[in-house]
Specification:
2 copies of one chain form a homodimer.
Chain A: E1 2-6, H1 9-21, E2 27-31, E3 37-39, E4 42-44, H2 46-55, H3 73-78, H4 91-105, H5 110-120, E5 126-129, E6 136-141, E7 144-147, H6 148-154, E8 163-167, H7 178-183, E9 187-190, H8 199-204, H9 208-214, E10 218-222, E11 225-226, E12 229-230, H10 235-241, H11 248-254, E13 261-265, H12 272-276, E14 281-285, H13 292-308, H14 311-314
Parallel strand pairs in A: 1-2, 1-9, 2-5, 9-10, 10-13, 13-14
Antiparallel strand pairs in A: 3-4, 6-7, 6-8, 11-12
Chain lengths: 315, 315
C-alpha cells in the first residue's frame, strides 16, 4: 500500500501518474483540508476537490483546478447580492460544494463525505481528509493574519509571508484511517506540494507526525522546487520569506528527520550530495510532469526507489 | 396604499400591471411562503421569487417562473451525487437561494432577507413574506400527506387533493409590516392566485384573517377561474376535489365574508348575480392578462372599482 500526503495541483498531477503505475486500490491519499473555506455559505475544499477531479479525469487541464468546461453563471449572478467575484467557483464545481455542505450540516463526518464524493466520481483509490474537525491555514503578513484563500486567490500570494498557523489543529484528531494508512503503508510519499501550506497542515494534525516517525514504511518526498523555482504556487516565495534556501535542499531541510528519500529534478543534480548530507537518500530524475506518460514514469520511479531504500535508514 | 396577497405566476402578472397603474412605492406585496422548500440544503422560495423576478422584469416569460435565459449546470451536475432532477432550479435562480440560505443561517429574519432581495433586484414596491417562521403547505391525497412542491412539481398535480394543511402556521406570527399593510391600506387585493395553496397559507397565519376582517380598506379578489378553467396551476382541480363549484362563484364562496369586491371575467358575466348574492360587489371585465397593456388596464380597473365600493359594504 502506498499512502500519499497531498495538497492541490502538484499532488494531483503526481497522483494521476501513481494510479497508472500501481493499482489504485493500493493507494490512499491523505488530503489537506487546511485550505477549506466557507464561500457564499458553502463549504469548499479546494485541495481535496482538485485531487478528486484529477483522479476522475475531470479536472480543467489548463488551470489544474476546477472542472474542465465549467461555467460561472452562479458566481456571476451572486455579484447582484454584493458578493465579490475573486473566488472563481464554477457551476459544476459548486454543485459539489452544495452537496458537501448539505451533508456536513446533516452531521455526516468529513471522511464519510469525501469517501462518498470519491465514489460518485469513480475514484479507485481511497481519499481521506487529514481531519474531520475544521483546521484553517492562516498566513501572517506585514499587516497581520490573512485567511489562506484570501492570500492565495484574492491577493494572488502578493504579500510576504512571515509565519503560518493552523487554526483548530491543536484540538483536531487524524480522521479515521489516517494513522492506519501511515502505519500500514509500504511507502508514504509527500507529494510535490507546498511543504508549508499543503503538507504542513497534514503534519500539524496531532498524531500524524508521530505516526510518520514510527511507521515501518519508507518515507519519500518529491521536491516541488526545480532549479530554484516552483512549477505552481507560492512555495518558492515562502521558502524565501520564511528563511529557507529556495531549492530542493531547502525543501529537504524542512522535511529533515521525517523522510528517508528525497526525489529532486535533474536540473538540481548538483544538489544531491547536500540533500544526502541531511541524512536521507537522494534520487535524481526528471520531475517535470509535462505529460501523462511522464507522470506515470515519475510515480513508478518514486515507488521503485522507495523500495530500494533500506528500512533501517527509514527508522 | 394598495396591499396585495400574492401567490406565484398569476399574482406576479397582476403585480406587473399594478406597478404600471399606480406608483410602485404605494404597493405592498404580502407573499406566500407556504410553498418554500429546502432543496439540496438550500432554502428556495418559489412564490416570492416569481414575484421578485416578475417585478424586476427578469422572469422567464415562457414559464412564468425562473429567470429568463437561465442555465441548469448545477442541477444537472447534482445528479452525480444522487439528487433527482425534478426540481428545475436554474443556475442564476440558485444564486438567489444560496444567498437567502446564507442569510437565514446567519439568523437574519425572512422579512429582512426578502427586503434585501427586492432592493438587489431594484423592485420599487415593498415585498413582505407572510411570516418569518417556516410554514409548509401540505396536501393530502388518497395515500396521505404530500409536501407541496412534491405535489406541484414532481407529481405535476396529478393526484386528487382531499385536504390541505399549513404545518407550522399555528405558532407563526405575521411578519413585521403584514398587519400594518392590511390595516392601513386603501385596498387589499387578493391576486388571481390559487385560493387554497397561494392565498390560503397567508390567511392561515394567525392574525391575518382578523386584520382583513377589521381593516377599513376595501377588499377585492380577482378570480383565477375563467369559464370553469384556470389559466395556470391546479386551482380548478382543487375546487372540484374539495367540493366547491369550479367557477368564479366557487372562488367567491371561498372568500365569502372576507371580500367586498369580486372581479370576474367577461366570459363569466352570467355568474355576476350569483357572486353578488354572496354579499359582495361583482365587477365583470377581461381578466386574461395576455399583454403588458392588458395587465396594466386590469390593475387600474381593479383599483378604480375598489374605490367605488362603499366602505360600509366592506365592514
Amino acid at each position: 500500500m502506498i499512502t500519499v500526503f497531498a495538497g492541490g495541483v502538484g499532488a494531483s498531477r503526481f497522483l494521476q501518474g501513481l494510479v497508472q503505475a500501481v493499482d489504485p486500490a493500493d493507494v490512499t491519499v491523505i488530503s489537506n483540508t487546511g485550505d477549506d473555506v466557507e464561500m457564499f455559505g458553502l463549504h469548499v475544499s479546494p485541495d481535496t476537490d482538485i485531487v478528486l477531479y484529477a483522479l476522475a479525469g475531470a479536472v480543467n487541464p489548463e488551470t489544474g483546478w476546477g472542472l474542465a468546461g465549467d461555467t460561472f453563471a452562479v458566481v456571476d449572478q451572486l455579484q447582484r447580492f454584493g458578493y465579490e467575484r475573486w473566488f472563481n467557483l464554477g457551476d459544476r464545481d459548486l454543485a459539489m460544494a452544495i452537496h458537501r455542505t448539505r451533508l456536513l450540516h446533516a452531521g455526516i463526518p468529513m471522511h464519510e463525505v469525501v469517501a462518498g464524493l470519491a465514489r460518485a466520481w469513480g475514484v479507485g483509490c481511497q481519499v481521506i481528509p487529514m481531519a474531520n474537525e475544521p483546521i484553517r491555514t492562516k498566513v501572517y503578513g506585514p499587516d497581520g493574519e490573512i485567511d489562506f484563500q484570501e492570500y492565495m486567490v484574492r491577493m494572488r500570494t502578493e504579500v510576504e509571508v512571515r509565519s503560518i498557523a493552523f487554526a483548530g489543529a491543536d484540538t483536531a484528531r487524524p480522521a479515521p484511517g489516517v494513522v492506519e494508512a501511515i502505519r500500514d503503508a509500504e511507502a508514504v510519499i509527500l507529494a510535490p506540494s507546498n511543504p508549508f501550506v499543503s503538507i504542513g497542515p497534514i503534519l500539524a494534525v496531532p498524531g500524524v507526525r508521530d505516526a510518520l516517525a514510527s511507521t515501518a514504511a519508507v518515507r519519500a518526498a518529491i521536491s516541488p522546487i526545480i532549479a530554484g523555482q516552483v512549477v505552481k504556487g507560492p512555495a518558492a516565495k515562502m521558502l524565501q520569506s520564511l528563511g529557507h534556501e529556495v531549492s530542493a535542499v531547502g525543501v529537504a531541510a524542512v522535511y529533515r528527520g521525517l523522510i528517508d528519500l528525497m526525489v529532486i529534478d535533474e536540473q538540481d543534480r548538483a544538489l544531491a550530495p547536500r540533500v544526502e548530507a541531511l541524512g536521507m537518500r537522494c534520487h535524481v530524475t526528471d520531475t517535470m510532469m509535462t505529460s501523462a506518460e511522464r507522470k506515470a514514469e515519475l510515480a513508478a520511479e518514486v515507488v521503485r526507489e522507495a523500495r530500494r531504500v533500506p528500512r533501517a535508514m527509514g527508522q
